[in-house]
Amino acid sequence: MTEVNTPARQGEGTSRSGDGPIRPGGWTRFVTARPRLSLLAALVLTVLAVLAGSGVADRLGSGGWEDPAAESTYATKALEREFPGSQPNLLLLVDSGSSTVDAPAVADRARDLTERLAGEKGVTGVGSYWQSRSPALRAKDGHEALIAARITGDDKTMGETLDRIAPHYRGTHGPVTVRVGGIVAVRHEMQTIIKDDLARAEMIALPVTLLLLVMVFGSAVAALLPLGIGIVAILGTNAVLRGLTEFTDVSVFALNLTTALGLGLAIDYALFIVRRFREELATGAAPPTAIGTTLRTAGRTVLFSALTVAVSLAAMLLFPQYFLRSFAYAGIAVVLLAAAAALILLPAALVLLGHRVNSLDLRRLFRRGREARVSGEEGTAWARTATLVMRRAPFFALGTTALLIILGLPFLGVKFGTADDRQLPSGAESHVVQQHLRDGFPGSPGGGLEVLAEGRATEAQYADYKQRVEALPEVVRVDGPLVKGDSAYFTVLPKGEAVDDEAQRLVGDLRAMRPPFDAKVTGTAAVLVDSKHAIGERLPWAAAFIAIVTLLLVFLLTGSVVIPIQAVVLNALSLTAMFGAVVWVFQDGHLSGALGFTSPGSIETTLPVLMFCVAFGLSMDYGVFLLSRIKEEYDRTGDHNEAVRHGLQRTGGLITAAAVILAVVMVAIGTSRVTNTKMLGLGIALAVLMDAMVVRSLLVPAIMRLTGRATWWAPAPLRRFHRRFGLSEGEPAEPAEEKEAVPV
User: Fold this and answer.
1) Which of 371, 493, 497, 737 gives 476 a disulfide partner, CB atoms 3.0 to 4.6 angstroms apart?
2) What pLDDT does residue 719 have?
3) How many CB atoms lie within 10 A of CB 479?
4) pTM attached to this predicted model
């Protein structure tokens, strides 16, 4: 025997909008008492947000992948302070054309450029091949060589310095041609491209989204409401990010999430509320009554949905990299603002519009009588889909699960790397420079490892350490030491790529050595090793945080202990296709020509974490929409199968429409020329479509049919807890008598 919760049967304290007048509750009175004043206040706040958030993109950073507490971060800052020439972030690639870099005219002009660069404000540690004669700074064919320097300051200062000096060095100078590269150029070019691409994405997404909303609602008036809520959320979040830049670093990539979630979630929430409001109007309810029912039902769902999405995004605050933390800042802000606008501004607008929300029905030319039809009849496509799926529940449950697992298999071969110049278009200047270094220079210049030696040591001890390092199988050459007081540093050039498996093993070998001084290793491979360690160490805590809080929130919504477990497992399963596609496309390079990117052969370490948190939250968003409607019907009728069928019938089209609209926004983001942004946009677009069209439409009803009424089971103490503290759609049911459970 299995005990399940007994819902209130129809008539036991449940009042539908068509059964009689419903007194508006306190929240309804609060948000609709002065609708014009509310909208005027919103307009003023939006204008202030525009002013406060102006120029936010110029204050955002393009880094943030490193762990600030890691050994590599400490060593990088110490080397920058004590030996600024040890870690150049600006490279001038000098091409001598048909001559060699040692030709007198080429050498003279290169020395002039080096001296000029050394005199620039904000530039330090300038060196060149023509000064040091280092073979690492000369191309193998002898036609290219490097001038290296370090631009000092934070991301904003470095970008301003680069903008000031680069035009004076880029281009032809007598017998040589100069290109500008290096880490600072890569990041600055990435920041500029992201800002331009985001503006283009918004120009694509907004009109297409409006067209889709008109198709969903028919009414142009109703279609404009979700779009307005999204714009308010985006502008408000830009102002929040601008304020945060006064206190902490924020990544420029977060702007993409702001646009995507601002439009996507605001449209989701507004879709749900406007659709429910129109349904209530169609039953004959007066606008005030319809608003009361809408906020009590769909409004509660929006609140729970926003909390679940915010929880998933908040998990990124557990990671030390400001790249991930930036997405948490932006995501939480935009989710809360979207929900607030949907629960405060939208009801005020609906009160003023009333039945005019159905005005300008552009579909009347093609479909008659649409305004009188509510999607609830037995013969709808979604009702037939639900009936078919539940009739063949084992087939659909096993088939969709197997499909999702197969689509996720490529992720088993994932290789983690760092974000480098290959994130940029192939024609970007800094990408061209770095590609020349990879293809034509020995020992991957700029990709070596630096060892910071602190503490007094003798020349013999330094020499012994250098000899031991040179004996390692992964090492090409060791330069140094350069000594300054009680500190020194060595440059270790690894074989192969700067962050391949050999380079990462070399980091471990160097750290395992025990020289008579304190040695700390940094460099690109060391930053990657430390970043992977930081993520791996905190990932279980982040996953546990998401799972526990999500389980609690879904329990409060449904009163069941089975449904929250199903929700977490099925949501995680819905992401397999996204992760498999990320590896198959962006790591392995399939479709790279069609999508216009260069595959680095790896996935940036933080991206899977980011994509999981965002996609899991959006999955829960759709899951809450479906479960809340199923729960409402189950409370009303007590018929489990009918509740599942009714829930899918009423929300299937809505969830699919919301997913398609969000996917359009994410695809617009995915048109970016920066590979990480392209991966984020296209990957999440795939995830939300798979979740809406496969998981919510097929897998969830199949699983709920298999678990039957046991789906609603909860121990007696938890049932009492839920009756007291839980929330759900519909009017609160009268408490059942002491017989709180029935055998199945």
Assistant:
1) 493
2) 87
3) 18
4) 0.83
